[in-house]
Amino acid sequence: MSEIKTNKLTGTSTAGSIVVTGEGNSTTTNLQQGLAKAWCNLNGTGTIAQRDSLNHSSTTDNTTGTYTFSLVSSMGNTNYISPTNCDRTIDTRNATEGVQYLNIATGSYKIECVNAIPNLDDQELVNTQTLGDLA
Amino acid sequence: MAGTIAADTLTHSTAGSLGTQFVVNGSAKAWVNFNGTGTLAVRNSLNTSSVTDNSTGNYSQAYTNSFSAADYSICATVADNSGVNAQWTYESVSTSGFNYLTADDAGSGYTWTDYASNSATIHGDLA
Q1: Which of B11, B75, B80 has its CB closest to that of A100?
Q2: What is the C-alpha radius of gyration for chain A, rounded to an integer number of angstroms?
Q3: N or C: which end of chain A has fewer CB atoms below 10 A?
């Protein structure tokens, strides 16, 4: 088994583009484009707290069920995606919760979590991941 | 100079080691951000050859490079910046694409609806 020890991977032809051979051993996928650039597991109840995260500097509790996630390293444009799911109470079946995201900026984005009524609602579990182009 | 590195492990001086299976298996193989209202427009994407507007709230995403099987994972979000009723689901999953469905859930049943912010990530095995 071989091992590479390095702190940085850089493409030779294009610094920000490295391809990886896929599982089928034929087609390739772009490494940088396929990597999550940020993710966060947030407790959105009470005094909100990030349980764990990547590339998130802070999360702001704007109002009930509304959170702003700020990034350490900004995205290169506002065309990135941040699919998010939430759970009002962990391990408890709740009415369908929905997530809206808005105020998308290169350095932050805001989401609103709602219940089935629908009203804005704090969530015990908010999971988000961000893919797109880093600045 | 272009080159190829074959290795089973990547090691960072402080952040630890990572088996390269996580690089190959853990990377998203496709993702898309599109505006589903009016004339459909893809804002940005990976491994997506097209998104077709089939009907209201019904879109087909097609991949450039297909998956080896139709058992991959799809995670998506639909957003209506002025409302709170947007829901999504999917159907017709194949190795080359799937149908992305969006609806308004106003409490009295679903109504297929177009939304401006739609995004999906796909993890699985490429062919």
Answers
A1: B80
A2: 18
A3: N
Q: What is the pTM of this model?
A: 0.87
Residue B20 falls inside a structural domain: no
Give domain status of residue B53, yes or no.
yes
Q: How many CA atoms lie within 13 A of B14 on its CB side?
A: 0
For B:3-22, CB contacts with A below 8 A are: 3, 5-15, 17
Of A31, A101, A120, the CB nearest to B77: A101
Count structural domains, chain B: 1
| Token pair recorded at residue A105 | 């900026």
* Binary contact (A79, B33; C-beta < 8 A): yes
Domain range enclosing B39? 27-123
Distance from CA of A30 to the nearest CA of B (A): 8
CATH number at residue B99: 2.60.40
Decide if B18 is inside a domain.
no
Contact B77 A99 (CB under 8 A): yes
Inside any domain, residue B1: no
Q: A-chain residues within 8 Å CB-CB of B1?
A: 12
pLDDT tens sequence across A50-96 = 999 999 999 999 999 999 999 999 999 999 999 888 888 887 766 56
